[in-house]
Amino acid sequence: MKPMKVLRYNGSYRYKAQRRKRIMKIVLALSVALVVIGAAVFGGIKLIPLVFQPHVDPEPVQEAFLQQDGTVELTLSAGDTYMLTIPDGVDLRGVVFASDNDAVVRVDSAGRIDALSEGTARIAAVSESFHSVCELTVKKAKESEEPSEVTTALFANLDTLEKNQKNGKENLYRITVNRRTNTVTVYTYDENGEYTLPVRAMIASCGTSGTDITPVGKYALYFKEGWHLLYGDVYGMYVAGFDGPYLFHSVPYNTRNRADLETAEFNKLGTNASQGCVRLMVSDARWICLNCALNTPVTVIDADASADPLGTPPAVKINEKIKWDPTDHDEKNPYHGKRPEISGAQDVSLKAGESFDALEGVQAADICGNDITARMKLTGRVIPDKAGTYYLTYTVTDDFHLTAAVTRTVTVEENES
Questions:
Q1: For 24-68, how does the pLDDT look when each residue is reduced to its tens digit (9 = 90+)?
Q2: Torsion of CA 368, 369, 374, 376, to 10 degrees
Q3: Structure pTM?
Q4: CATH class of domain segment(s) 338-417
Q5: Which of 17, 110, 142, 321 lies 20 to 30 Å from 217, alpha-carbon distance?
Q6: For the structural domain made of 149-307, what CATH number should be given?
């Protein structure tokens, strides 16, 4: 989306509409108010570096291999899950698993162990032809790091970035916009001071074509604002200019209201859809404003996907009736604090020998309601012809790096017939 043309005048910014002269005076009059209001709004945002916690997918469930007449020692953290594995040739249906301290570690009928609290416990695995022991020490639960922003951005080289942040170098970043792939990649400097290390990639919408194309070249950030009037009488939020009228900004809003997003335009992210500016999700536009200093170099290129070292983040679709950007951190945002949802994973009982499909009827959706069942992970197993208690955990992570988990209990009862 093209902005109103930016003019530097006596240390302040004015806006000249690239439209009919008869509305010139109105726009210029409003510009003064916009600068004052914008300064107040943006001042309230606080231009401090945004510390982000990269999402880490749940670690794969670990296995403990039991041996005949052997003892395995494990140290876990509360919340960990392991699967006990027995040697080939031993019929799992005949093995009984038992914990001597269910308050510390529980074990189900298939050998899944869950560390519940700090302490020690012993699990025995016994059948007519097999005997093994697992000695467990459970430590304090690991601290879970909640992401400080909702974003689809991709991350890398965060250890180096943290060191660079402590060095206090004025120009911490370089920004590259690939207008062909609609990807914005931010780099930090390596041990030689060269800006070769990608740290963040963001999905975008660059210009379309002709006079609305995003210009290739080398530029630098030269101003920032909380809100900015754009061509077409719409507004951008978290705006950073890099070349005259060309800006980084959020997907346009119909008014200066966070609940008045042009949702159809949001759903074009990942495609060339603007009038020359670089549109981003709110969290990504905000990240640039809060982290990238004025004079941060910006390079716009026209290249294939090989020029994007972190790849292109996913473009998530939203419900066009909910006129909020799902990445907006405002607490009034209906997406605020949401997690993906897993449905259909209620506890269930069945008779031994009945068929059971652990995935049947279980579905997952992201915070916008998009179906993400295909990426759901299942931990645990059920032996339908072995009476006992089983625990199944369903975990899913959406494109916003938000994770949800649900554990269900499956009880297999003896078939008296």
A1: 333 333 343 343 334 444 433 333 344 333 444 445 668 999 999
A2: 80
A3: 0.83
A4: mainly beta
A5: 17
A6: 2.40.440.10
